[in-house]
Design brief:
With 162 residues, the protein is of the alpha+beta class. The protein contains four helices and eight strands; from the N terminus they run βαβββαβββααβ. Strands 1, 2, 3, 4, 5 and 8 form a six-stranded antiparallel beta sheet that branches. It has a two-stranded antiparallel sheet with strand order 6-7. The longest helix has 15 residues. The chain is globular, with a radius of gyration of 15 Å.
Length: 162
């Protein structure tokens, strides 16, 4: 059984409800209770104009990474996200595998740890909240070191509840 760190994001429609739906979906897949960060409001990166709601959860699963990512893509599609959307575009829900245990993998369509998470303060700050001892399985950098290097971004913890 692996501990999987998942980043969640939404900037279309009822962003709070999309995150709650995603958390319920992930809870159904998880073998144990989810660890959930606070929900953050974050400035958009790229062409999107509406702020994102972001969070990070840690789950445990027996599913292999390819099986898990297929389930994530099916959930995203069922929640109105087109598979062909351009990078950084507005989206109802986005689920990214940030890490999968200590696995390091790079194939044509799956890279773990996520190749850009270390540039995303909206992933690192929520991750530090729920797993302050986490470190990158590839580089071995800890979360504090990664936060020091991450680009600045407008980010604020909200009072929203799961």
């Amino acid at each position: 059984m692996a501990t999987v760190v998942v980043a969640l994001g939404s900037n279309v429609g009822d962003r709070h409800q999309h995150l709650r739906d995603a958390a319920n979906f992930l809870a159904d897949l998880s073998e144990t209770n989810l660890q959930k960060s606070s929900i953050y409001i974050t400035e958009p990166v790229g062409p999107s104009t509406r702020d994102f709601f972001n969070a990070v959860v840690a789950m445990t699963t027996e599913d292999k990474p390819r099986t898990l990512i297929k389930k994530f893509k099916t959930f995203e599609h069922e929640h109105g996200r087109a598979a062909s959307q351009p990078k950084w575009s507005a989206r109802t829900i986005d689920l990214d595998i940030i890490s999968y245990g200590d696995l390091v993998i790079q194939t044509d369509n799956l890279i773990i740890p996520h190749p850009e998470y270390h540039k995303r303060r909206f992933v690192l700050e929520p991750l530090a909240e729920i797993m302050p001892q986490w470190s990158d399985p590839g580089t071995k950098q800890n979360i504090a070191e990664l936060l020091e290097k991450a680009p600045e971004l407008r980010l604020q913890k909200t009072d929203l509840r799961w």
